[in-house]
Amino acid sequence: MRSGLIMEGGGMTGVFTAGVIDVLMRNNIKFDGAIGVSAGGIFGSNIKSGQIGRAIRFNKKYCQDPRYCSVRSFLFTGDIFGADFCYRQLTYELDPFDHKEFENDPMEFWCAATELETGKAVYHRCRNGLLEDITWLRASASVPVLSRRVEIYDKSYLDGGITDSIPIRFFEKQGYTHNVIILTKPYGYQMRPANYMFWAKLWYQKKYPLFLGAIRHRHIIYNRTMDYIKQKERAGEVVVVRPSHQCEAGLIEHDPALLQKTYNDGVRQCELALDKIKKLLSET
After folding, report:
1. Is the pLDDT at 256 greater than 90, yes or no?
2. pTM of the entire structure?
3. Catalytic annotation, residues
C-alpha cells in the first residue's frame, strides 16, 4: 500500500494548491508519490523540491508582469504564459527551482499531458527537475488555443487537463491505494462544455481531430471522475481538500490580493483536513 497526492490544475487558481502543499510540508507530511496536472504540476512540484512559499511568492511578484502572463505575451510569443520567462528565467534565475533537492527527495513525481496526435493522456515521471522534466511540466500546463504546442521527441503535447484533470485512476493503477486529492473547484462543481470550440476547430480540426474530440468530450470525462471521487470520499477511501467556495482568482489573475486570498483558503482547508490526512496515511 502506497500513499499518493493528486493535484488538479486550474491556471492561477492553482495557488490554492500551493497553500495546501505548504501546510503539508510544514507538518512534515510525506507521500510515496505525487502527480500534478497543469498548474497542479507546476506549483505542486515544489513539494518535492521542499520549497515552502515559492509558488505564492513568484505568482504575487510577477502576476502583473506581461512577460509572465498577458495578451501581449500571447501576441508576441504564441503563449499566454510566456514560455521563456516562466520556464527559463523564472525557473533558473529569478526564483530558482531546487532541482537538486527535487532529485534527491525519494517521492515519485508525475505529470500528465495530452498528446495531440492521439488525443490521449500521457504520463511522465519527473526524476531530476531539469530540462526534460520542465518541458513536460510546460506541456502539461499549456492551455489549448492560448499556447503553442510543446514538442517532445517528435510528438506534440498540450494541457493534461484536457484528458485527465484528476488522474486518480492512473495513480491507483500504479499502486497508490491511499490518496489525498487537491481540487481547485468547490464541492458540487460540474464542468460545462468548452466555450472556445469555435477557436479550437480553427486550430486543431484539420491536423489534430482526435485532440479536438478530447476537448469536445472533456466535461463528460471530468464529471464522471468527480462522481468517482465523491464515491471514494464517502467511503472514506480518499481525503479531498477543496476550496470552500468558487475561487475568486481566475485562470489568469493579475491581482496579488486575490491570489493571496485563494492561497489562504488552501492553507485553511488543509489545516481543517490535517487529522483526516494523517489518519489515512497512518494506514499505509
Report:
1. yes
2. 0.97
3. 38, 159
